[in-house]
């Protein structure tokens, strides 16, 4: 039996040019949708576990939270699919899961507050989880609005000085207002009006990141100018230190007049990292670290509230019933959680003051244990790493610095929060991104997510295909035609 004949050349015709067309680029939106569905399942199951642990009957509240959560992120997914189709498919699902877990913990603390009120015959407090759902809806609206309105993130660089000025004014307003309209727990960081309150520093950090990304690109020659070499490191010239000194003065002003250690540390550290990324010079880090240490020594010597923070950090049990109560209860809660935690709904996280806001990490550590807390931190780590990958992949310098600054501000904020509740560093009053209760933080972080997704979309989008220009007439192929209109090799006419 003879072997089958090979297929003829015409069996698999090649397209014009000899190459098959390239497959369409993958947007990975279906993978994003699958991950969002997994986040919705985890959130809903966690809500059921909380209700079961508290011996509550399964009510429509669970369905309300679950359906609202699912609807909000389904709309957000559709917006990404339409207006940023090539964005990183992990960013939105990670935020959805973090936000969902934060909602679960807030609902769990609501149940504890209701039990405490019933035991003491107090009025039943309104659940904060309802308010958090509302803030999540508004944050999703901000997210979608930015995706639609911001066709090209590079247009932000044109208005960088205006945005930077708005950020500085937003930082300064609470310091100028009377304490009754701006102060909470000793820090003047709010704008409080009847029926309305906002923490402008949350939005100011994003505006200042945009400003410094633009300035570092436009004035790069100033920051990279040759300076003195000391111990193998190149330090900038003295006359080029103006920008970082200005940032230092602003951050010290925030620390002094608003008593806000967290925001001043966050802004200065983020700008310092962006300076290093833009110049690749360790000298800027050394100078910035020196200025940071000098500023805190200066503040410690002159201002009592800074000394109280430091003393509470070093000796929290010396004044347990007053200044040390919060951090002491946090340490007790983390110790109670141990490795695997007490289980959702089975701990006593309400014993920690501000468990829904500044100390929600303690709630995670107590009820989910070290394993659960490590998993949450891993989610943040993946988010930051994907943001930095976006910074490496995007083609323009402004996009690189913007994505790096947005990613690092999440990393620095998380370090400050976790360091504070575990007594690694003094308490600062910052909230955990996407998880803590509160509108200003949630809205600002959803705006941050929208900017990062727009940069990611530009970084992952395929390069535009240039139209092939027609060949000049002199280089075009010629054919010999017969008078009757046929070609010489076409055979006899019939």
TrEMBL record:
GO terms for molecular function: lipid-linked peptidoglycan transporter activity. One of its GO terms (cellular component) is plasma membrane. The keyword S-adenosyl-L-methionine does not apply. GO terms for biological process: cell division; regulation of cell shape. It is found in: Membrane. Residues 1-25, 465-494 are annotated as: Disordered. It is a multi-pass membrane protein. Its main location: membrane. The chain crosses the membrane at residues 33-50, 62-79, 129-150, 162-181, 201-219, 240-257, 263-279, 284-303, 368-389, 401-422, 434-453. It comes from the Bacteria. Pfam families: FTSW_RODA_SPOVE (PF01098). PANTHER family: CELL CYCLE PROTEIN, PEPTIDOGLYCAN GLYCOSYLTRANSFERASE RODA. This is FtsW/RodA/SpoVE family cell cycle protein. It comes from Nocardia gamkensis.
């Amino acid at each position: 039996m003879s072997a089958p004949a090979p297929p003829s050349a015409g069996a698999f015709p090649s397209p014009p040019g000899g190459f098959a067309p390239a497959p369409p680029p993958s947007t990975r939106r279906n993978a994003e949708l699958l991950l969002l569905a997994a986040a919705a399942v985890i959130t809903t199951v966690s809500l059921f576990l909380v209700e079961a642990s508290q011996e509550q009957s399964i009510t429509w509240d669970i369905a309300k939270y679950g359906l609202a959560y699912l609807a909000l992120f389904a709309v957000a997914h559709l917006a990404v699919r339409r207006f940023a189709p090539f964005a990183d498919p992990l960013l939105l699902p990670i935020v959805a899961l973090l936000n969902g877990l934060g909602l679960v913990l807030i609902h769990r603390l609501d149940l504890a507050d209701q039990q405490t009120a019933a035991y003491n015959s107090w009025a039943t407090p309104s659940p904060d989880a309802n308010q958090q759902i509302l803030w999540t809806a508004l944050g999703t609206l901000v997210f979608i609005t930015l995706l639609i309105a911001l066709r090209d993130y590079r247009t932000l660089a044109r208005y960088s000085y205006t945005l930077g000025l708005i950020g500085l004014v937003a930082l300064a307003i609470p310091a100028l207002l009377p304490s009754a309209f701006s102060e909470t727990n000793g820090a003047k960081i709010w704008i409080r009006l009847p029926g309305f309150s906002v923490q402008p520093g949350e939005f100011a950090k994003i505006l200042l990141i945009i400003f410094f990304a633009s300035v570092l690109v436009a004035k790069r020659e100033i920051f990279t100018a040759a300076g003195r070499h000391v111990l193998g490191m190149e330090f900038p010239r003295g006359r080029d230190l103006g920008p970082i000194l200005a940032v230092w003065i602003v951050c010290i002003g925030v620390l002094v007049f608003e008593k806000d250690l967290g925001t001043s540390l966050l802004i200065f550290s983020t700008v310092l990292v962006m300076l290093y990324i833009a110049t690749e010079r360790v000298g800027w880090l050394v100078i910035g670290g020196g200025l940071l240490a000098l500023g805190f020594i200066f503040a410690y010597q002159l201002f009592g509230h800074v000394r109280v923070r430091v003393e509470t950090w070093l000796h929290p049990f010396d004044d347990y019933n007053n200044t040390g109560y919060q951090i002491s209860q946090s340490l007790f809660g983390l110790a109670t959680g141990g490795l695997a935690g007490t289980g959702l709904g089975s701990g006593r996280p309400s014993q920690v003051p501000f468990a829904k806001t500044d100390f929600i990490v303690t709630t995670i550590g107590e009820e989910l244990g070290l394993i659960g807390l490590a998993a949450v931190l891993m989610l943040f780590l993946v988010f930051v790493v994907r943001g930095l990958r976006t910074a490496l992949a995007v083609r323009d310098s402004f996009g690189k610095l913007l994505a790096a600054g947005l990613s690092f501000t999440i990393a620095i904020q998380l370090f400050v929060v976790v360091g504070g509740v575990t007594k690694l560093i003094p308490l600062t009053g910052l909230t955990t991104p996407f998880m803590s209760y509160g509108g200003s933080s949630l809205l600002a972080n959803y705006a941050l997510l929208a900017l990062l997704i727009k940069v990611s979309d530009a970084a992952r989008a395929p390069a535009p295909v240039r139209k092939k220009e027609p060949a000049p007439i002199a280089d075009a192929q010629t054919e010999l035609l017969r008078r009757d209109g046929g070609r010489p090799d076409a055979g006899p006419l019939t």
